[in-house]
Amino acid sequence: MTADLTLRPADECRYDALALGEVMLRLDPEDFRIRTARSFRVWEGGGEYNVVRGLRRVFGLRGGVLTALVDNEVGHLVEDFILTGGLDTSLINWVESDGIGRTARNGLNFTERGFGVRGAVGVSDRGHTAVSQMKPEDLDLDHIFGDLGVRWLHTGGIFAALSEQSARTAIAVVQAAKKYGTVVSYDLNYRPSLWKAIGGRARAQEVNRELAPLIDVMIGNEQDFTDALGFEVEGVDENLTNLEADMFASMIEKVAAAYPNFRVIATTMRGVRSASSNDWGAIAWSAADGFVKSAQRDALEIFDRVGGGDSGGHVHGHEEGSPEAGRRRRRARRPVIIDV
Amino acid sequence: MTADLTLRPADECRYDALALGEVMLRLDPEDFRIRTARSFRVWEGGGEYNVVRGLRRVFGLRGGVLTALVDNEVGHLVEDFILTGGLDTSLINWVESDGIGRTARNGLNFTERGFGVRGAVGVSDRGHTAVSQMKPEDLDLDHIFGDLGVRWLHTGGIFAALSEQSARTAIAVVQAAKKYGTVVSYDLNYRPSLWKAIGGRARAQEVNRELAPLIDVMIGNEQDFTDALGFEVEGVDENLTNLEADMFASMIEKVAAAYPNFRVIATTMRGVRSASSNDWGAIAWSAADGFVKSAQRDALEIFDRVGGGDSGGHVHGHEEGSPEAGRRRRRARRPVIIDV
Amino acid sequence: MTADLTLRPADECRYDALALGEVMLRLDPEDFRIRTARSFRVWEGGGEYNVVRGLRRVFGLRGGVLTALVDNEVGHLVEDFILTGGLDTSLINWVESDGIGRTARNGLNFTERGFGVRGAVGVSDRGHTAVSQMKPEDLDLDHIFGDLGVRWLHTGGIFAALSEQSARTAIAVVQAAKKYGTVVSYDLNYRPSLWKAIGGRARAQEVNRELAPLIDVMIGNEQDFTDALGFEVEGVDENLTNLEADMFASMIEKVAAAYPNFRVIATTMRGVRSASSNDWGAIAWSAADGFVKSAQRDALEIFDRVGGGDSGGHVHGHEEGSPEAGRRRRRARRPVIIDV
Amino acid sequence: MTADLTLRPADECRYDALALGEVMLRLDPEDFRIRTARSFRVWEGGGEYNVVRGLRRVFGLRGGVLTALVDNEVGHLVEDFILTGGLDTSLINWVESDGIGRTARNGLNFTERGFGVRGAVGVSDRGHTAVSQMKPEDLDLDHIFGDLGVRWLHTGGIFAALSEQSARTAIAVVQAAKKYGTVVSYDLNYRPSLWKAIGGRARAQEVNRELAPLIDVMIGNEQDFTDALGFEVEGVDENLTNLEADMFASMIEKVAAAYPNFRVIATTMRGVRSASSNDWGAIAWSAADGFVKSAQRDALEIFDRVGGGDSGGHVHGHEEGSPEAGRRRRRARRPVIIDV
Amino acid sequence: MTADLTLRPADECRYDALALGEVMLRLDPEDFRIRTARSFRVWEGGGEYNVVRGLRRVFGLRGGVLTALVDNEVGHLVEDFILTGGLDTSLINWVESDGIGRTARNGLNFTERGFGVRGAVGVSDRGHTAVSQMKPEDLDLDHIFGDLGVRWLHTGGIFAALSEQSARTAIAVVQAAKKYGTVVSYDLNYRPSLWKAIGGRARAQEVNRELAPLIDVMIGNEQDFTDALGFEVEGVDENLTNLEADMFASMIEKVAAAYPNFRVIATTMRGVRSASSNDWGAIAWSAADGFVKSAQRDALEIFDRVGGGDSGGHVHGHEEGSPEAGRRRRRARRPVIIDV
Amino acid sequence: MTADLTLRPADECRYDALALGEVMLRLDPEDFRIRTARSFRVWEGGGEYNVVRGLRRVFGLRGGVLTALVDNEVGHLVEDFILTGGLDTSLINWVESDGIGRTARNGLNFTERGFGVRGAVGVSDRGHTAVSQMKPEDLDLDHIFGDLGVRWLHTGGIFAALSEQSARTAIAVVQAAKKYGTVVSYDLNYRPSLWKAIGGRARAQEVNRELAPLIDVMIGNEQDFTDALGFEVEGVDENLTNLEADMFASMIEKVAAAYPNFRVIATTMRGVRSASSNDWGAIAWSAADGFVKSAQRDALEIFDRVGGGDSGGHVHGHEEGSPEAGRRRRRARRPVIIDV
Question: What ipTM is given for this predicted complex?
Answer without folding.
Answer: 0.88
